[in-house]
Amino acid sequence: MESRYGLLLCTERVNVRSGSQTELLRTATRLAEITRPFILAGTVWGNMRLFRNIAAIAKGMSITFMEMFQPTTVENYPDGKGPMRGAVFQERFRGLHVLQRDENGLEKCVACFLCAAACPSNCIYIEAAENTAEKRISSAERFAKVYNIDYNRCIFCGYCVEACPTDAITHGHGFELATYNATNLIYRKDQLLAITPAHEGDNARFNASDAGKMRMIER
User: Fold this and answer.
1) What DSSP string describes 27-76?
2) Tell me: the pLDDT tens digits for 111-169?
3) What's the rounded Cα separation, in Å, for the pair 35 and 38?
4) How are beta strands 97-99 and 169-171 bridged, if at all?
5) Is 106 in contact with 168 (CB distance < 8 Å)?
6) Are 173 and 205 in contact (CB under 8 A)?
């Protein structure tokens, strides 16, 4: 009985499917008519996006073509005049560090080690010494007997400059630090110390290659 009932159900389903093909075609036609505006709108939107992209590319290329016919402005480095040899920098450029002097010509560094403590790359090494009445190096009790900066590790973040309570260390404009020997990138105190106090002229902006020449001129 159950097998006969199942056979009848299958036969009815086949008949319904075969008889509903026309209904399916009508439904599909209606769906196509309903969705046609949306398809057209999507096509139009896609074309608009394409035109916008083309317009953006054309705008960028127009700027490129205009710059192509403008006169070329170059920095006359390294054949320019002055200690920078023609190189031009912004005022806030962070270059080679400079150990400053006060108005009396004494070193501002008092060997407080705050710059070394603030350095995230641990590239500053300091050894302190006491000032004497016969030989006074700084205006405080101590001075930096040894002050080294390892530029193999320095990231020019400026934290040492911000941490210094006496404004003893600043960033100069020296940038010629490239070398084939890594040991040459460890700068000693005599390489970083300013020639004259900052108030007597420009703030000791010199390159590593010109430092010796400038000291000879000052002397």
Assistant:
1) HHHHHHHHHHHHHHHHHHHHHHHHHHHHHHHHHHHHHHHHHHTSPP----
2) 999 999 999 999 999 999 999 888 899 989 999 999 999 999 999 999 999 999 999 99
3) 5
4) antiparallel
5) no
6) yes
Q: Can you tell me which residue has the tokens 């196509």?
A: 32
How far is the first Cα of the chain from the last one, in angstroms, to the nearest whole number? 122
- Report phi then psi at 171, rounded to 5: -95, 125
Mean pLDDT by 10 residues, the chain (219 residues): 41 46 70 67 67 84 85 78 78 90 91 95 95 89 94 95 94 88 94 78 46 43
Residues 6 or more apart whose CB falls under 8 angstroms from that of 186 comprise: 148, 149, 150, 151, 152
Residue given tokens 């075609």 in the structure block = 25
Contact 107, 168 (CB under 8 A): yes
